[in-house]
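Translate sequence into structure tokens.
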Amino acid sequence: MKEKLEQLFYFGLGSALMAKEKLEQAGESAKGLREENEQKAREFFDQAVAKGSEERGRLKDEVKALLKEAMDELGLATKADLDALREELAKQRQGQQ
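Result follows.
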């Protein structure tokens, strides 16, 4: 009887230790997965930011081209046109004095 109780005690102790080891391994595995997922999320975020920045530049250029085309069609003066006109007027005023 004593031997059976001793075996039962060792069985319980061994089972508890095995369960503890399995839980520790599962915890380490979960930690590794969490770190891997965080890294993947960071990479995805960085790629999305880069893509958005790239697209922003392309859209900016496209909008500029459309505005220039519309200004040309409407015959609107640009800042450069106005600056040139101001210079010409300033020269004429100086010539008159």
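Note: DSSP finds two helices and no strands in the chain.
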